[in-house]
Amino acid sequence: MMTSTKAKNLIRKNPYLPEPKKVIFYKRESHDSFTIRLKWKLDHGVGQFVFVSIPGIGEAPISICSHTKDYVELNIREVGNVTRNLSGIKKGSILYARGPYGTTYPMEDFAGDDLIIIGGGCGVAPLKGVIEYIESNRELYKDIFLFLGFRTPDDTLFDYRLSSWKKDFNLHISYDKIENKGKTCILGAEGFVTTLVDNNIHNNNQKIALLCGPPIMIDKTIGILKNKGFNDDQIFLSAERLMYCGIGKCGGCMIHGKYTCLDGAVFRYDQLRDEPNDG
Ligand SMILES: Cc1cc2nc3c(=O)[nH]c(=O)nc-3n(C[C@H](O)[C@H](O)[C@H](O)COP(=O)(O)OP(=O)(O)OC[C@H]3O[C@@H](n4cnc5c(N)ncnc54)[C@H](O)[C@@H]3O)c2cc1C
Ligand code: FES
Question: How far apart are CA 46 and CA 41, in angstroms?
Fold first, then answer.
């Protein structure tokens, strides 16, 4: 007869099984996004993601936007059923989560290089985890360039971190449209983040670019970097695809012949370039 311990172990090994996590911090970032911190000591790598869920509603893959192993921070944009329901949570709420999943940025491999971090909109969230890793390992890298693009000043994410990023790094911010200064403490230039990259990055010497944002921003940025001489293996990007299982079973996340959940979501550009697109 199967012992209950064995049964419990089998249940524990179920990779789909989420666990309850307490929300210990909640901050609204903009009209459609918020940041939460979960009480969850998680051994994760830079660029990985987790699934968060509300029973009876559904679950969503969300990038970890912190670096510490003491808790997990997530920035969530309200776009649909799960994410809108998540916006109702507050400090002290319990939600369910499983993970971590996906590949990581190979941060050790970049030692001695300049890092160029380029984020658009909610794509800035996973890059905050990268920035926090750099802050903890600043001696490993040379110059750090941050290019962050938002729709308007009111859409700025993590404005409470900008002063320190401006002090420590080469920070460049763009807004598609500036009608008023909004809530942000540091105002950027009006225009697209791609223009800032084009104006401020002049060559590929010992440089690595890390990109996350909407597909049009990614495509344009890659074009600009390649014009500056960047090789495909100097460009890393975080891809977002519809995901269901997160463990290579459902096939829902295929992109260029790869599983985004297993082979990504962080890809080196040359890993995607030559394969036909399935998505
Ligand atoms: C690896 C990974 C990391 C992610 N990290 C974050 C993050 O840090 N913060 C964040 O806010 N969101 C992130 N997303 C996107 C997030 O998972 C989706 O917005 C969420 O699943 C939508 O669920 P929903 O039920 O709220 O919306 P739905 O009702 O399912 O859909 C609403 C709309 O969003 C679109 N959509 C749904 N899922 C995705 C997706 N995966 N990618 C693009 N569009 C989608 C739908 O096509 C639809 O138009 C990530 C996605 C992936 C794959
Ligand atoms: S999400 Fe199911 S295979 Fe990737």
Answer: 15
pLDDT at 261: 85
Alpha carbon nearest to ligand 1 atom 28, residue? 80
Query: Among 53, 85, 101, where does a domain finish?
Result: 101
Q: Are 246 and 238 a contacting pair, CB within 8 Å?
A: no
Verdict on whether the full-model pTM lies above 0.85: yes
Give domain status of residue 173, yes or no.
yes
**Residues 124, 197 within the same domain:** yes
7 backbone dihedrals φ, ψ, rounded to 5°: -60, -40
Identify the CA nearest to 66 among candidates 42, 85, 101. 42
Judgement on whether residues 15 and 87 belong to the same structural domain of the protein: yes
Is the distance from CB of 30 to CB of 157 less than 8 angstroms? yes
Distance CA 110, CA 51 (A): 28
pLDDT of residue 275: 54
- Per-residue confidence (pLDDT) for residue 4, from 0 to 100: 54
Nearest ligand 1 atom to the CA of 60 is 21
How far does the centroid of ligand 2 lie from the alpha carbon of residue 53, in Å? 16
Cβ of 244 closer than 6 Å to ligand 2, yes or no, is yes
Q: How many domains does the chain have?
A: 2
Strands of the sheet containing 33-38, edge to edge, are: 58-63, 49-54, 94-101, 19-30, 33-38, 72-77
Read off the pLDDT of residues 197-209 as tens digits, 9 standing for 90 and up: 999 999 999 999 9
Residue to mutate (ligand 2; options 249, 263, 267, 278; most atoms within 8 A of CB): 249
pLDDT in tens, 239-261: 877 788 888 888 888 887 888 88
